[in-house]
Amino acid sequence: MGRIESVQNKQVKEWKKLLTKKGRKKQNKYLIEGLHLVEEAVRAGIEIEHILIREDKLDQYTIKVDQEPENLIIISESVSESLSDSVTEQGIFAVIAQKEEENAIHGNKPVLMLDQVQDPGNLGTLIRTADAAGFEAVIIGEGSVDLYNPKALRSAQGSHFHLPVIHSDLKKWISQFKEKSIPVYGTALDERAVSYHSVEPEQQFALIVGNEGNGVSDELLKETTANLYIPIKGQAESLNVAIAASILMFSLHQ
């Protein structure tokens, strides 16, 4: 068990860089904050590089940590504050290597695909809902917010530990699913779009949802099996992407 008290510590400076996309990409690591997320990582058997706990929280945070003693580090309040991205820092963090399991995605169960989803809260909610709906994986396309964004991680509530979540080329995956005769549904209001009520629930399909303002790109919509819309009965112009995707995920999955 180690101890770090100074924010000027070299290791602390490297961890602080994990709050930025550039820093995460360079180190190929990310930082999670909060007891719930750390417990979820431990329960999921995720390989954790370091667990950092504020000294005054040791008695409160009694988690089972299957780590070598040197991987558990006691930190000062000032170090904890410097690493926190929350309004109220919780005093417990974990440093984890980024691992994306592309080979774990086969399309045996539904797959959610995200095209240029830019709000981290939406991205995290979409991952959490895909987990709850029994989806196999989430594929994050180019132009979307980074999975490891602290706000996205808080919103996902640890669901990214439960199913593969990767950053990849959506067009490539559309082709692969269609080669396996797995239907790929876009979400749109174009001339091809049909109500989601007209689609029978299935065990295997891919669902693409898009950017908060512009929806799914035309380039991808041209490649889909069908494009779906949700009939709106009131006067609201549209639905939030996470809400719309939630309706479709639970309705379409058998």
From TrEMBL:
Entry keyword set: Methyltransferase, Transferase
InterPro entries named among the record's database cross-references: Alpha/beta_knot_MTases (IPR029028), MRM3-like_sub_bind (IPR053888), Ribosomal_eL30-like_sf (IPR029064), rRNA_Methyltransferase (IPR051259), SpoU_MeTrfase (IPR001537), SpoU_subst-bd (IPR013123), tRNA_m1G_MTases_N (IPR029026)
Name of one Pfam family that matches: SpoU_methylase
A single BP term in Gene Ontology: RNA processing
Key word Transferase present: yes
Gene Ontology molecular function terms on file: RNA binding; RNA methyltransferase activity
Domain RNA 2-O ribose methyltransferase substrate binding: 31-102
PANTHER family in UniProt: RRNA METHYLTRANSFERASE 3, RRNA METHYLTRANSFERASE 3, MITOCHONDRIAL
Protein name: RNA methyltransferase, TrmH family
Organism: Alkalibacterium pelagium
